[in-house]
Amino acid sequence: MDYSPLRTALADVVAIPVTPYDAEGAVDRAAYRALLRRLLDGGVKAVTPNGNTGEFYALTLEERRLVTELTVEEAAGRAAVLVGVGHDAATAVEAARHARAAGADMVMVHQPVHPYVAQDGWIDYHRTIAEAVPELGVVPYLRNPLIEGAAIARLGEACPNVIGVKYAVHDATRFAAVARDAGLDRFVWVAGLAELYAPSYWAVGATGFTSGLANVAPNISLNMLGALRAGDYPGAMKVWEQIRRFEDLRAERQSANNVTVVKEALAAMGLCRRDVRAPSKPLPEPRRAEVAAIVEGWSV
Questions:
Q1: Under 8 Å between Cβ of 284 and 260
Q2: Which residue among 27, 137, 145, 284 is least enclosed by CB atoms within 10 Å?
Q3: b/e string for 155-183 if b means 16 or more Cβ within 10 A?
Q4: Contacting residues for 36 by C-beta, under 8 A, at least 6 apart
Q5: pLDDT tens, residue by residue, 216-240
């Protein structure tokens, strides 16, 4: 298969939509569609339903399927749909096949949460999923610094549909080495730690980055992308400074408020409720005011 259109889609801003809830705590379908349309109208070309910012691990199986279907319907070819899948291998395969049936383009495989992960076992896990959906692009989500580039290379040799890697280890030097050991040109390297890490990761090989911020201000994320593509690092760092406090709030306490801050911003804009599911928690009042002030300053 020709995976080049999917590779192009990954080398961009890969937005991770939030999953809004209604007053009864169910997925708010209308709000979710509206948020997706806002991303698409804002110029986003790739979206990842059931990502971590979408509260993947807090959703039921039925809700994850619903979010997948809503995303494909709303995207309608305007953006590539990269569906998050995970849990045990059988569950991940079932989700990947559902994504294929729904009309998605790719799946992103969440890092296994099993406490005991061997290099060969990591390969086997992803190979099982990739071989089940050879028509789809497959993107491992890598947060484990112990997974070596050689393991990624072996996975790519076995599965040609593994076309990209979402790399989310807080170490640009490690990323540079892993990408080169795996194959810098073999995979599309997506900076999985979003805008604050995008300039450093871009400098050593990334060509796309993920974004939860894009839910709030897709123009800002695209401004960062444009600057990086132009090699304008001073311009990229101006964007970096603009969003720094917002992203720092998301990253506090090992990213405890990753989703909460984004939903708070959207609530301040009247776009969805601020509700999140445990183990996340809504922000206290002082933080809510700070987030609202940040967003107001962006004039979005």
A1: no
A2: 284
A3: bbeebebbbbbbbbbeebeebbebbeebe
A4: 17, 47, 70, 71, 74, 75
A5: 999 999 999 999 999 999 999 999 9
Tokens of 149: 């580039």
Strands (E), 86-172: 106-109, 137-142, 164-167
Q: For residue 146, with 0-12 CB atoms within 10 Å meaning exposed, 13-18 middle and 19 or more buried, which class applies? A: exposed
Provide φ and ψ at 143, rounded to 5°: -115, -5
Least confident of 68-72, 113-117, 257-261: 113-117
Per-residue model confidence (pLDDT) at position 135: 97
Cα-Cα end-to-end distance for the chain: 40
- With a CB cutoff of 8 Å and minimum separation 6, the contacts of 202 are 191, 209, 228, 236
What's the pLDDT at 203?
Answer: 97
CB 213 within 8 A of CB 238: no
Q: How crowded is the C-beta side of 85, counted as CA atoms within 13 Å?
A: 35
How many residues make up the chain in this entry?
A: 300
The confidence score (pLDDT) of residue 300 equals 74
Q: What DSSP state is assigned to residue 278?
A: T
What pLDDT sits at residue 1? 85
State CA 259 to chain mean position distance. 12
| pTM strictly above 0.90 | yes
Q: Return the structure tokens found at 62.
A: 């039925």
Q: Determine the Cα angle at 167 with ends 137 and 131, to 5°.
A: 30
41 near 71, Cβ under 8 Å?
no
